[in-house]
Amino acid sequence: MEAKLEGRIQALEGKLERQIQAVETKLEGRIQAVETKLERQIQAVETRLEGRIQEVETKLEGRIQAVETKLEGRIQEVEIKLERQIQAVETKLEGQIQEVKTSLEGQIRAVETRLEERIQAVETKLEGRIENLRQEVKAEINTAFNKTMLLLTAIGVVLALLSIFR
């Protein structure tokens, strides 16, 4: 009878060891999959944001170039048509050029600020997601540990009962 019970206990211990190993393997696989997925998502977001920043910079450079070209053309027209008023027109256009440059610089700073805020928001959001995933993984590990402890406690109770009934 004892040999039979010991055999059953050993079989249960072996089964529990296999179950614990399977749970550990499964959790390690899930953790690795989550980490890999997060790394890919972060890389994709970084790539997308870099492309968008480059697009905005290129677009703004083109707009600045277009404005400068337009203003230079206007200056030449004024010089040809109004030679007698060159000094007044030049003074006026220099003021306008400075205003446009100041305005464009302000717009560029505003766009840069908005882009930095967007990037910060995305980083914050990703950090939050990563933290949530970490908490989920911790919870799963704790659950598995608690189940293991319950199983080990049950084995202890069975062993205690067996030793009492001997």
UniProtKB/TrEMBL annotation:
Source domain of life: Bacteria
Sorted UniProt keywords: Coiled coil, Lipoprotein, Membrane, Transmembrane, Transmembrane helix
The protein's name in its UniProt record: Apolipoprotein A1/A4/E domain protein
Coiled coil region boundaries: 79-143
Transmembrane segments: 148-165
Keyword Transmembrane helix in record: yes
